[in-house]
Each structure stands twice: as structure tokens, then as C-alpha cells.
Design goal:
The chain is of the alpha/beta class. The chain is built from 13 helices and ten strands. Bound molecules: flavin mononucleotide.
Length: 395
Amino acid sequence: MPYENIFSAITMRGVALPNRLMRTSMVSGLATEDGFVTDLLKQRYEREAKGGVGSIVVEAAVILPSRSSYNLRISDDRFTEGLRALVDAIRQANPEPKIGIQIMHFLKIARSGWRQKVEDFKPEELPIIVEQHAAAAQRAKSVGFDFIEIHMAHAYTLASFLSRSNKRTDKYGGKLENRMRLPIEVYRAVRKVAGDEFPVGIRINGEDFTVDGNTLFQSTRIARRFARLGVDYISVSAGSRFEDAATPQPNMPPDPMSGYSGHRMSPWWWFPDMTHVYVAEGIRRYVRDGGFDVPVVAAGKIKTPYQAEQILKEGRADLIGLCRALLCDPDWPVKARQGREKEIVRCTACNWCLEADSRFEKVTCSRWPEGKLAAPDPFLPQTARPSELPENASL
Ligand SMILES: Cc1cc2nc3c(=O)[nH]c(=O)nc-3n(C[C@H](O)[C@H](O)[C@H](O)COP(=O)(O)O)c2cc1C
């Protein structure tokens, strides 16, 4: 079989993922302004499920009551009915992929340019963050998701506790052991709710890519610690921090995508392919050297089935994270399996999708026919739009 590594199953706590392709979390802007599931949101995931991916991590769902327009929410029981309908719709489209949801606590930002920092939390507020994660996990499990991913990457709360930029002077900041304390408390609380048969993964930054941020040195230690605690997978991302964000325009909140670290999260066309595989590989090696076999997910401009197969074959990662590539062409997996690689409509890493998110618009792909909110079905290179790349871009 072509791509035998890609199309081999992997099991986490008895939950079998049919192949090694994981659709990593991608905010879509398709929820209602209040965070409820819409038909458009369901259609996005139904379309991706049909393309044969092995697992889908539904986009970062907000777990705290603070306002966050058009972001999916799991912060209250009012959201469970819609989330259950979402899971059912994905399963109906294709019962094979396992469906997870990323649960996310964010730091508040304001149009004045103000942003909340981890140092601002009073000690008595921290248990609330733990409880919010546990409550969200309970809801996720109750509506039928197959697994949960705790968001500990990018600009969000838990990543900011983990980062070297966390200068709290109490037992939740400063040295690494202290910085891991809150994320560990969260993991333990989520695990308690999830039980022993329900997979719980984490997503971390392998590198923050800021002057004062974590590097592979810290992230390898963080990963091994969570492996010891029993996480079921470690998804490795990078960047997207506020510390190096550009000064926002008047009346715009700061944007963690605007600085160098922001350019790393979803590597632009000018970055080399497989941009962050070395980071996932470093983490995997350190975790394995510690005696743990927890699967590690690599993501970041992995474009072709050949690249994905090589990464797996060479033991650089256990799962391949695809985000923009699947937004662009959800049929990437089935086309690879059927030897129709040439029919894959390639993501060109133009980041039209990412910029739409930064502009608070619905996330779409520049290669889809104009005005479409989903990839056509079927979708072939002949019917794709040329990419939004500058004229001098060489790929
Ligand atoms: C529009 C957009 C939204 C994203 N939203 C999330 C998110 O909610 N949570 C997350 O962990 N990563 C998010 N990411 C990052 C992706 O999951 C992924 O790690 C990154 O795009 C690199 O993978 P790729 O090259 O396959 O796209 C987002 C990326 C894009 C482009």
C-alpha cells in the first residue's frame, strides 16, 4: 500500500484513530457571535471528515464566560446541544475519524491595546481556571467527543503560564517547575473528569520564538513531564505570542499573529516546508529517552503525502498535523490513499485564512472559487483559483 505509515492505525486508551493524519485545531469564525454551533460550522467539519482524515480536533472552544465574538464556546451548558449536533453531523458524514475538541482559556485583550497578563491573576482566581477546564471537559465528554485536547500553546493562558515570560513571584511563576503548576493542575482535573478510558491530549509550543520565551530546552522538559502524568498525545506547535506583536492600529486589540512569533505558527510560503518538524522530533526524542511512548504530533507546512510518510518512517513524529492543507483540500487523505496525489489542491501557505481570522472574518481558502465558504466537492487543481502569493514567490 502506498504510504503505509500514514495509513496505519494508532490507538490511544482504546480509541483507535484509523490513520496518522490529524486535522489540527483551526478557528473558523463560523460560530454565531455568541459562540453557538451553526450549520456552516457543521458543514465545514462534515466536508473535512468525508475526505478521510484520521482524527479531527474541533477548533479552540472558549471555556470562560468572557466575550469572544464568533468563537466556538463550551463555557456553559447552553452550548452542549449544538456541540452534540456537531459531533453527530461529523459522524454521520463519516463514522471513521475520531473527533476531539480543543478547550481553551484566553487572556483578555481590549481595543485600547491593554492585554491581561498571567501576573494579573490573583491566587484565588487560579482554581477557577482549573474548574473551567474541568467543566468544559465534562461537557465535551457528555456530548460524544472521542477525545479532548487542552490548549497550552500560542498566546493563551496556559501557554503563558508555561512560558519563560511568566514572571509571577508566587509558586505559579518564575522557575519551570512553578510555571508548570497551573497547567498540571488543569491536566489532573481534566483527567479526573475524563476517566481512564478517555484520551486527553495537550498542545504545546515547541518554541515560543520570542526573546523571553520558551525554547526546545524548556518544551522538551514540559513534554516529558506531561508524558509522565499520562497525557495521550502531545501536539507540537510554535509561536504566536503577544510579546513581539506589532503596535496595533488605533482601536484595534493587539494581534499575536503580527510579530515574528506570529509568523511562525502557520508558517508562510517563504518558510521551508515541514518548518517545525525538527521541534516535534526533538520533543519526541526527549520523551522517548525518558522512557515514554506518548505519540507526538508534528505540524507546520507539511504539504505532500510523501513528506508526511517520510516524517513517520524516519520516526520524527507519530502523527501528522494538517491544518491549512485540509482546509484547502479536505480530500488530501483520500487522494493520497488512492494514489491520486496529483489531484490534491495544494495549500500555498499564503495565509489568506489566517489573515481572515485576524480580521475577525469567516475563515476561507484563497484557492476555493470566489465567495465559497467550503471546498467544492469534488475539488481538483483545474478548478482551483491561483494562489494569493506575490508574483515573485517561488515555491
Ligand atoms: C485560521 C487559523 C486558525 C487556527 N486556529 C488554531 C486553534 O484554534 N488552535 C490551535 O492550536 N492552532 C490553531 N491554528 C494553527 C494550526 O492548527 C496549525 O498548527 C498551523 O496552521 C500549522 O499547520 P499547517 O501548516 O498544516 O496549517 C490555526 C491556524 C490557522 C491558519
